Records
---
Amino acid sequence: NGTGTAHTAPGSATDVTGLTGAFTALYGTAPEGVWAAPGRVNLIGEHTDYNDGFVLPLALPHTARAAVARRADGALRLHSADVPGGVVEVAAGELAPGARDLGWAAYPAGVVWALREAGHEAGGIDLHLRSAVPTGAGLSSSAALETVTALAVNDLYGLGLPPGELARLAQRAENDFVGVPCGIMDQTASACCAEGHALHLDTRDLTRRQVPFDLAAEGLRLLVVDTRVSHDLADGAYAERRASCEEAARRLGVPALRDVTPEELAQAPGRLAGPGEETLFRRARHVVTENRRVEEVVALLAAGDTHAVGPLLTAGHASLRDDFEVSCAELDLAVGTACAAGALGARMTGGGFGGSAIVLVTEAAAVTVAEAVSAAFAAAGHRAPRIFPAVPSAGARRLA
Ligand code: ADP
Ligand code: MG
């Protein structure tokens, strides 16, 4: 079920031994290695990654881990300890988008497909997976699964691809093989984040910068509030927001909303004239102000003023709620309650319509704020949220 609560510490020696043992029991031979790739939260920069904009994610300590070995016959045999149904088998050479319903196995199979499509000699594998990234919680369990597969295949087949390129091909797998039109943020975060840092990514030219984000040194905590509301319903809305952003950019005469500043947009409402003008203006206003907020947060972190990031998070939430309209009652309750209970700031993170919120809070106030959020959910009759600290952790790596 992906929560990892019943398992030994993910990534520990015991965990690696467990994965290796399970692999051997399943496939009859030992794996050639064990790899890990994390889920992520995005500190700021939401719905900007398909507008050529900026994002600032950090990797979670929660990882997907995979024990993997090559196969000489070109078959892919894929197994997840977290879903019922046994091993999924498909021939690498016969992979084609939509050819067969592979279920969850479309993610790792899609990665092998994308590598081969790009001309890399990725062959057969046996894979056994276990993940501690909650699924469907807006924490990118899908990108963790893709990235751990990409890194394992890259290492085993000696492809020599850098992490940014593995992320790009993992995104291609999700877009064109699984059929989810996500941007490049999640896979890049999983592949490229560094411990103690947030990753400043320009999604236009894919340049990356590691921004020191040492919460403990400043007596701060970043809490994740998983509302446990599934974001499944977001698919149609996501496509609609993407289309709105493209239409707004077209009417403004720019390649992407990245090319417009908040000041320019405020002076140019007439240029959006046409059907849906008012809605398009608000959608565009979210994206252009959100890009500005990313720059402001990066500047504050560089200046060592992490406390001051709080209000920018809360402003970002208001923009997602009111202008982009991708929040929901549970996310609004988490953010509103956390701020009222003394958090420095809070916002929804991920695509929206459920999933998770993040809360920036002093260590002294962390317990009070978490308890206030839980109490508010109980009083409103919502499912109990899952609340845990987001410790900025390492990106994808080989464990054994
Ligand atoms: P998110 O990435 O926000 O967690 P997605 O809907 O993008 O949500 O991805 C969730 C899907 O990824 C699951 O439905 C499943 O198909 C796949 N997945 C994630 N983790 C695992 C896992 N541990 N085992 C099998 N499939 C997984
Ligand atoms: Mg996902």
---
Amino acid sequence: HKTIYYKDYLPSDYTVVNCSLEFIIEESSTRVENIMEIRRQNPSAKELRLDGEKLDLELIWVNDVLLDETMYTKEENALLIPLDTDEARIRIINRIYPDENTELEGLYRSGGIWCTQNEPEGFRRITYFIDRPDVMTKFTTKIIASKERCPVLLSNGNLRGTATLDNGKHLALWEDPIPKPSYLFALVAGDLGSITDTFTTMSGKKVDLAIYCDRGNEDKCHHAMRSLKKSMEWDEYTYGREYDLEIYNIVAVDSFNMGAMENKGLNIFNSHYVLADEDTATDADFMGIESVIAHEYFHNWTGNRITCRNWFELTLKEGLTVFRDQCFSADMNSELTQRLDDVRALRERQFVEDAGPTAHPIKPDHYMEINNFYTATVYEKGAEVIRMMYTVLGREKFREATDSYFEWYDGKAVGTEEFLKAMQSQSPVDLSQFKRWYSQERTPVLNVSSQYRPESAELVLKINQIIPNNTKNHEQLPYAMPFRIALLAEDGSEYPLKSDDVTLVHRDVVWLEKSVHEIVFKDISSAPRLSLNRGFSAPVIIECDELDYPFLMANDRDGFVRYEAAHQFGIETLEAMMNGAEVNEHYIESYGAILCDGSIEAMFKSQILELPTLTTLMQRQAVIDVDVIFNAHEKLKQVLARRYFSEMLSMLEGLYNPSNAHIDGVSMGKRALKNRLLGLLMSAGDESVNALCLSHYHESLSMSERLTALDLLENYAPDLASGALDDFYRRYQDQTLVMNKYFAVCASSRREGTMERVAALQENSAYDVKVPNLVRSLIGSFARNPVAFYHRSGTGFRFVAEKVIEIDAINPQIASGLAGAFKNYPKLSHEQKAQMGIELERIKNHPDLSNNVYEIVSKILE
Ligand code: B3K
Ligand code: ZN
């Protein structure tokens, strides 16, 4: 288990200028012929090193001379060829076995379809190559396969020709004119259905669009196609970026390790992020498709045209592309609700990661297994770091800076330093200290207090940065960040911010750099209320005991602060209850005021009315005690439901229209609020509400409502749940994407016996341990179910440990994702820590453990 360090990075000795590939796909194996034009970049290099894993090498030629075994060296994962010329032509023939590829990296089979996944290091499982992102190559690809088995043959770029061959075979020739790293290579072959469309770019070029899927699912591709066209238009309008090939293809496959992949001109997607219709997909699914389709499309410029110098620079393309897809979704839907969803996801996943044993900077300086670094930190915190620069520069300057970035680095493999250079060229402030966001880890805390001086009409704001030590317990330095604030008068209006002590990058944004800031704001005529970190302008934790939650919930004009006040008030209330206090009456009243305020838009209301999650509360505990949290949580829901029972019920009825399954913001908002209210009401334990929930299950035409009703029945009305679960299963057992939801409901259940049910469901005919979506739905949901996973018996830990070991032998990426469930280990009680420790040691000591799982488990145990 070897560690790789950024400081050891060197440019490649050789590069591959052109690569021409020929694939002959047969039932049991695929023959690959690879002709590379190599150029030497380091004049003193004498040996060409090609990466290769699990390849059956057949023949090699250098400049048409066939090599015998004495003329090269074959290591386990590399081929070394002596080479002392500036140019050479290497020809290699090797064989691969896609059917045996359960890791789903390289060329593999999903159902009957041959497809590839090469980021970050999968191409070396297809053929020998210099498999690193700073080697950019022009690829041509010939695919030969049975016409009957594989009527569809796809690769990157533009289609240059097809032909029918003997023995029922045919071929397709693809040429990608734009040099790219090998991780963006893709191939698909199979019997697929499709829908097609066209898009005319801003300069008038016509692009053929197609989405491929299993036959019979074509009708579920239309939302994805609409999303693709909207993305193409948005990137032209917002960033001036035009698509650059004649064809854009998307293929949906069922077995995929993550969401999707941005291969040049041939995106390959987890079918979860393509297929949707009103009967089978939830509103969240529709939103997810829109954003992932956009994300992969946006990579064409941020990732593909300009790529990463090495994998330490991953956030260069991922943080930026997430930022871009978040802005796209905000523009397509609601800016506020999108922002709240993004902040919520960041805090639930990234803050937790950043506080635990696997914390790392958005630009890590070492790794064991790069696949472990496609994390919430690299992606979502990376996007927040970009967003801070956006906030500092403002929309127009940011656009000028990205124009420079595209102009300066198109066609190159670069790093975050280059991106920052482009940003600095337009920034009103010096970004040197800001760069610490790239190299430090953990979430900073801002401790804020204030003092009002009536005699001079001044408000003194004191902001203290508390910077946690890193995972190695080393001290870290204060950050620079934009901090958006307001000082509010009695009626909610904002005092203009005037101060000599701090740089205001905008009217309401102060630029913080020091570890302690004392800022005097002038002309404040009476003691103001503080409104802090508006819009979540910096990814920090705020500590301030002066916040007037009820006032902010009711009056702040910043939607984020309104939400945040309710959220923090909820946390305080729940934590007091966890310590034995009665429910805070002021909280109940403020909650009721939001609930009954008819002027609040439905989606936003459903977001404000969500109680802080178990994960949020767990994260704040010094020693995790799930039962205490869970009980307080249930109690608070019950109190709220009983207090506002009739209001909630009548609001619920007003929102319910069983036949509404429209996919628009207003309908989605109504469903979200309806589901929130039903969830609160169900906790009241009232027979009539249970019956209502069951009727919603049967009558609703949208999956969002049906699935929520099913989940609530499962948790609160077990007698009614079994019939509904059977019905759901019968109705959808042939649709694997819906079965994922079924498994997730069962595995997320808070009821006793969940582990036994999950164990039994592994035998269900709809389950398959080799399909990542199903593993994530059943085993992953269980591991994320705090009530079941942290069960006092310790059986939850044991069960997940066994699954990690079992799945590691099949697919290490999925296994290491699952192993992340153990990352609260340092924060467990003595007893639970002992239980989990045994399981972690068991995993760590397992023979033949993958690097992926080893890296995660050893960090947790450290
Ligand atoms: N770039 C891919 C992720 C590849 C993950 C490899 N383990 C998808 C994306 O971020 O768009
Ligand atoms: Zn991405």
